Amino acid sequence: MAELLRAAGTLIVVEFAWDRIDVTTAEWALACLPGAPDSGKHSWLERCCRGRTHDGGDDVGHLHAEAHAAQWADEEGLHSSGRMLEEVGRRFAQRSFSWWPYLYPDLDGTSEADELAAIEAGEINATSFCYVSAVASACL
């Protein structure tokens, strides 16, 4: 990516931070999930927070939310937010960084403002980040 950006070019990364789903964030999200679909298949968010398999079975019912999310992310081939930030930080100079809501589109009756309010109140973790950067001079 650094080679594709011209000098002084800007990189914007907006990404899901699954590794910030802790027990309280998972419980909050699960409480806001819509009812089970007619297909009986669970949403990606329920599988992430509850450890459900694609066929609806309880894959790891004894694990905590963090472990469910980690197992789900491993199965999906996702990197942690820390790893992503470390990698872009090697090649780009950070201009700004912020945590943001991510889960609300998949929740019933929950807006971005609702999720942001819960984040700002310290009730849940933000599960998305926005990283704005420029090509690091060492990469030019």
Q: State the domain count.
A: 1
Taken in chain order, the helices and strands follow as EHHHHEHE
Termini separation (Å)?
12 Å
Arithmetic mean pLDDT: 83
Assign an overall shape: elongated
Q: Hey, roughly how much beta strand do the residues contain?
A: 15-25%
Structural class: alpha+beta
Radius of gyration: 17 Å
Low-confidence stretches: 52-62
Spatially, the strands of the biggest sheet line up as 1-3-2
Largest sheet descriptor = 3 strands, antiparallel
Q: How many strands in all?
A: 3
How many separate helices? 5
How much helix, percentage-wise, in residues? 25-40%
Q: What's the assembly state of these chains?
A: single chain
Quick recap:
By secondary structure, the protein is α+β, with helices and mostly antiparallel strands. Helices cover 35% and strands 17% of the residues.
Q: What can you tell me about this protein's structure?
A:
The protein is of the alpha+beta class. The protein has one domain (10-139). Helix content is 35%, strand content 17%. It contains five helices and three strands, in the order βααααβαβ. It has a three-stranded antiparallel β-sheet, covered by helices on one side. Helix 1 packs antiparallel against helix 2 (44-50) and helix 2 (44-50) crosses helix 3 (65-76). The longest helix is centred in the middle third of the chain and has 12 residues, at 65-76. The termini are close together. Residues 52-62 have low confidence and may be disordered.
